[in-house]
Amino acid sequence: MYETVKMLHSYWAYLALLMIVIASLNALFKYFGKKEFHPIDFRISLFTLIVMHIQLLIGIVLFFAADYVSLISEMGMKNVMGNDLLRSNIVEHPLMMIIAIVLITVGYSKHKKKLTSIPKFKMLAIFYTLALISVLVKIPWATWF
Q1: Read out DSSP for the chain?
Q2: Residue 24 Cα distances to 20, 31, 123, 128, angstroms
Q3: Tens digits of residue pLDDT in 15-61
Q4: Residue 96: CA count within 13 A, CB half-sphere
Q5: Which end of the chain is more exposed for a tag (fewer CB within 10 A), N or C?
């Protein structure tokens, strides 16, 4: 089960990264270009939200399938934090990805409350770009290529 979930998490990550890049660039270009908010912009931001939440759910399943909880209890948190790979897999990567998904969720929620195009794009641009930066910082690049 672990290998299947790991593969799913790894391949879904490409779609998640692609969508957050598209959504961020769309919001930035249209905000600075003073463009009108269209239904396609709503769909892009919503699809990004959905894809990222699915990635989070797959990641949570992977976290427990990898049995990190028993590893932490066996090794102790001090030893886990002393190991760069384990610290990244157990603490840093999940935490930064949760922060990114919170940013996306907040940005999506805030943009829906705005009535005109510029404030909508501003909310999406700020929150989705911060989420993109958070994701890019903690992607395990060595295992991707």
Answers
A1: -HHHHHHHHHHHHHHHHHHHHHHHHHHHHHHHTTPPP-HHHHHHHHHHHHHHHHHHHHHHHHHHHTTHHHHHHHH-HHHHHHSHHHHIIIIIHHHHHHHHHHHHHHHHHHHHH--SHHHHHHHHHHHHHHHHHHHHHHS-HHHH-
A2: 6, 10, 11, 5
A3: 999 999 999 999 999 999 999 999 999 999 999 999 999 999 999 99
A4: 17
A5: C
